[in-house]
Amino acid sequence: MATVTHGTGFFTTPAEHSGPAYQAYRILHVAFIAAPLIAGFDKFFNALVVWDDYLAPPVAQLLGGNTHAFMLLVGIIEIAAGIGVLLRPRYFSYVVVAWLGGIIVNLLLAGTFFDIALRDFGLALAALALGRLATVFDHRLFG
Q1: Domain-wise residue ranges, the chain
Q2: Is the pLDDT at 29 greater than 60, yes or no?
């Protein structure tokens, strides 16, 4: 089967990149760039929420009370994940899945954030879908 393309030069894309599956891929791609970046940067400002409050007591105890420093490290990791999804969604979407898994475990250990854990489970499934779609539609901005 021949590949039909749209456009010319740098912006040439196969015809299947204009269909619903590609649109779903792009929606998920943008979402999993934006969400980790926003959450990661907010760890430094606590404008959306006081992130330290979501750390499970057993985890906080393991950290010896250094919860804020840990959340700053979490912010850095989330920013890196967002940049990774921007550049290589085919691989970094699975990093986001694993990261969300860790967040879910933390929330379940806290014993009070079951609704947020459920939401993050849905996000993990969406990140998994991004990874699967990226096997077909992954594009590289740089090389």
Answers
A1: 17-137
A2: yes
